[in-house]
Write a structure and sequence with these properties.
By secondary structure, this protein is mainly alpha-helical. 87% of the residues lie in helices and 0% in strands. The radius of gyration is 17 Å and the shape is globular.
Length: 126
């Protein structure tokens, strides 16, 4: 139960952080380009890389703290940070075929699924 509460608390913090970045980006740069999404994806991926290396090399937090920061905060701030970590993990294992397949498949099929969902709902709701 402690683990679930840690993830939930981190998720709330990450979601609020993403919201405030979105509000700030619109105020500063307008609606013409998804600056907030790009920003949280880059910052979240950088933060995940820093955090994973620090936890591997210099700091061994308990499971709840790990989950709070990685699954909770960064997972809600940007799921792209987790995707980036998955790509890096596959790459570091040395199998480029699987790495490229995961990278391309994730982007192509996820974006394709979004368009498919939109198309389905346009048909259903029209």
């Amino acid at each position: 139960m402690k683990l679930l509460l840690a993830i939930a608390a981190g998720g709330a913090a990450g979601a609020l952080g993403r919201h405030f970045v979105g509000v700030l980006a619109v105020r500063l740069m307008g609606h013409g380009f998804p600056w907030a999404t790009l920003g949280v994806n880059i910052v979240g991926s950088l933060a995940m890389g820093v955090l994973i290396e620090v936890m591997a090399l210099a700091w061994s937090p308990n499971l709840e703290t790990r989950a709070f920061l990685t699954i909770g905060v960064l997972g809600a701030f940007t799921t792209f940070s987790t995707f980036s970590l998955d790509v890096a993990t596959l790459y570091e294992r040395g199998n480029m075929t699987i790495t490229v397949a995961y990278l391309a498949g994730s982007v192509i099929f996820s974006v394709g699924a979004l368009f498919a969902g939109m198309k389905i709902m346009r048909i259903v709701l029209s």
